[in-house]
Predict the structure.
Amino acid sequence: MPFGAGEVRWDRMCAPGVDGHWRAWITVHLDAGALRRLGLHPDQPASVVNGPSPPGWWHAAGERYARRFPGGPAQA
């Protein structure tokens, strides 16, 4: 793994959804220095989008997927 022990942190939240089933949401936090080493820090040219956007069907599929799980991170 390219990250040190102090460079990565994750948080997990569990709660019942509107349908009564339990859901879990995970948030990952990375140290900016770790991202910089990989060329992913916002100040670096490699982190900037340099190509075309995905096709419309890709965005529509993502929106359909988000609607299948109401109350999840996409709705926050």
Notes: The longest strand covers residues 8-16. The chain has two helices and two strands.
